[in-house]
């Protein structure tokens, strides 16, 4: 989806993916000591605002102006501070090996861009830092509960293993879950989860 399409989606008054954090992200973050966190494609801010409330120093980015507006509003309502750049994957300016954790939550890309994006996000992670990812697996194409309608944009274990091969303690697994993340992520879904250390 283009930033214009995301702006149209996020222009709604309601938070279209809810205001609660993604469950897998929340559970993974609980096991880590708060430090510097990067959240690419952060949309309306539900994950960044939650992380900031847990003591993380959060940097987020997205191409959607409307998404950023809602994220900053949510942060203000919750009384937390987040840094949020309006930028795409190739434009975002961040220091290398700077973050203790990078988390990509439903940040899908075209097959042509996927590996490059994942490797660029890895470059911002400190050695010893943790990478967290949750997205839709290719099986999600059979569901109508969220995610891209192009199977090439959905993840396989093999693709993620290739993209994140430099991580140690790399765990990648698929699950069928019941999503309850606002009107656009709702119902039975096939997801893939990844966690690893640089």
UniProtKB/TrEMBL annotation:
Transmembrane segments: none annotated. InterPro entries: Methyltransf_25, SAM-dependent_MTases_sf. GO terms for biological process: methylation. It comes from the Bacteria. Residues 43-129 form the Methyltransferase domain. One of its GO terms (molecular function) is methyltransferase activity. Keywords: Methyltransferase, Transferase. PANTHER family: PUTATIVE (AFU_ORTHOLOGUE AFUA_2G14390)-RELATED (PTHR43861:SF3), TRANS-ACONITATE 2-METHYLTRANSFERASE-RELATED (PTHR43861). This is Methyltransferase. The lineage of its organism: Bacteria, Pseudomonadati, Bacteroidota, Bacteroidia, Marinilabiliales.
